[in-house]
Task: structure prediction
Amino acid sequence: MKFGLRLRGGLLATLIMFGAPVIAPVGAVFVSSSALAQTVQSISVQGNRRVEVETIRSYFKPGPGGRLDQGAIDDGLKALIETGLFQDVRINRGPGGQIIVSVVENPVIGRVAFEGNKKIKDEQLTTEVQSKARGTFSRAMVQSDTLRIAEIYRRSGRYDVRVTPEIIEQPNNRVDLIFTIEEGAKTGVKSIEFVGNNAFSSYRLRDVIKTRESNLLSFLASGDIYDPDRVEADRDLIRRFYLKHGFADVQVVAALTEYDPEKRGFNVTFKIEEGAQYRVGAVDFRSSIPNFDPSSMRGYSRVNVGSLYNVESVEKSVEEMQIEASRRGFAFAVVRPGGDRNFEAHTVSVVFNIDEGPRTYIERINLRGNTRTRDYVIRREFDISEGDAYNRALVDRAERRLKNLDYFKSVKIATEPGSSSDRVILVVDMEEKSTGDFSISGGYSTTDGALAEVSVSERNLLGRGLFAKAAVTYGQYARGYSLSFVEPYLLDYRVALGLDLYQRQQLSNSYISYGTKTLGFSPRLGFSLREDLSLQLRYSIYQQEITLPSYLANCNNNLGTSAFNPSPAFAASQIPPLDLSSTNGLGCYSDGEASLPVRKELANGKTLTSALGYTLTYNTLDNNKNPTDGLLIDFRQDFAGVGGDVSYLKTVADGKYYAPLVSDIVGIVRLQGGILTKINDDLRMLDHFQMGPNLVRGFAPNGIGPRDLNPFGTQDALGGTKYWGASLELQMPFWFLPKEVGLKGAVYADAGGLYDYKGPTSWTATNEVNVPGCIPSTVNPSSTGTCTGLVYDDSKVIRSSVGVGLIWQSPFGPLRFDYAVPLSKGKYDRTQEFRFGGGTTF
Result:
């Protein structure tokens, strides 16, 4: 439907004053001098049905003496039109110069409806449009609402949307407003190109930006939807990436977007001028503040001579120096970095200038947009408060912390003038987002089989910044539940308190003959020592027991019922050789028998472990999910023996180093090791390290290390008290595939070892009949005897392998396929060349 709006009347006072001849607009009337003597009360109103007469008269403001002049009448006409209440407004002259205001009122909207919309709900559109039910109908407002609806669809990637307003007249000057919407197909990004990039490939740069190309799996994500704001943000991401890698002169000149009608999508092209790559030639520190030694800031600098110029390192250095200066009592110190380029040598001399800044104080901190999150949750992220000296570095740190909370879609801290020249007001603008998650996860691995998990979590419980999660897991070989709770600010200190309650059940499978049940509780405290260094203290108490099928622990010591009758040749071939002349309980093995340490653990029943521990983590990774550069080191120690039934000291170290190489290839070096030390009590087999593909790929779970050699038993893996491992891996993209597919290949070589079993090898029982699975050394022993000893292999063989892998960052979750071939192994190790693991959340 086509429609228009006529605005009647005009401003004529200026033209009348100068006597200029004019042509009057339709509906406008020249008011004679006799009319100028009229007052507001002498105005006559015609045509009004809902709007009161006095309301209309109120728009005409008299001058001195209560008289109306031409300017007041003209202003009143304009004000009435701008109310949007009237389709038409006319001012005429009646008998004796009387002012007559004739109005035609706009209809009232009976209802506002939307038709054809499937992707965006009525509720969302209703909140966006200005036309409301029982409100006044305005054609200009309807036109604005039409454009607004179209813009909402464009923001969701549907640029072919068509919105048509329809007006249905109803009795009593009422109308129904219907917006008919043709949503059209999603308009995505069909191609992303880079021009001028020589140092980094287009494949690598696509990993930097947030915009993605459309592909077959785009319906599971939204990164391929064209969003001009996102494209503009990508320009800054590219620039920051280059500045981080030494390109101090880089410019992202433009981000060109073009709609391709044939592909029904956008082509995005980033034009880059890289410039030269610079290294740090010198680092200097200068101060204009009396009694301030600039060289004392050298320890807080992350910029090193000879390294690539990195703007992020410079910014972090400035932040730490400025904060340290404030701690030393120089609250208004400002650190300003400077740099002199040597264009021939391609070096930058970095200078940190420490000067006295303006003496400005924080008058107030105003919070806006936190409709759910409590004020104190936001304010505790600031290291400054109202009345303190204004420190931009601390403000920037607070903004970064608020963003990292992941409670808000956006966070921006700005300053406004205070009540005086030395006062500023900090304004924190935020937009809340959903912080609750409900997920159903599923996966499969060659170790745990099929697995499913249902979990409910909330990152900002009750708006108090608390984290809570409940999860239930049910799988082919693993089952259990867990409850977690985290208070990130214990007693208003920057210390995180975590509480974990869990129950796990591991069933017997092709890799282990026994199952385990574990019920535990673990409180923990987390400290952030530095931005790249954190410490966790924990206490763990858990009860554990072994479950074993009855046929693996049913020794009846009755050779007459034994189905096993070894030949002399077979007995001689075993390690150690069997003594057929001795009746040593061979009947126990007629249907197999679990290893001695397993049966002893079964006899001991439930075991309680109480342990104190800590983890020290150093993390400089550029991306925690998909790292390409940086170092991650974990050092953990746990001391068991604070009560409970067992005691030991377990020490574990694990380090990974990522380095970008050539042509988007990432190199990964991993070193790991662990030692289990006996304290007082004997070590249990369950406390030993168990290794397999987590140490050297190509081996089965629990496939490496000491093993029971009983040829008639289950030959369980016993584990070891010492292990070490080293791995070298190269990850590379498949350049012939689109980046958005998320596939990478890997080649690797692993080496490691597990040895030094120190668990039980025999035990004495007072009454073997009551000890499940105890195999006496003789037939029908007396009331006291010693169970058969354990014979096992504990050779210190280096296990090694080489292999290839396929890594897929799929919309269904991370998946990895590995095929590894062992090069060296122990005689009794078990291999598994193919391994698969992965899962999804939906």
Summary: The chain is about 15% helix and 40% strand. Residues 1-37, 556-568, 578-587, 765-787 have pLDDT under 50 and may be disordered. The CA atoms of residues 303 and 313 lie 6 Å apart. The radius of gyration is 39 Å.
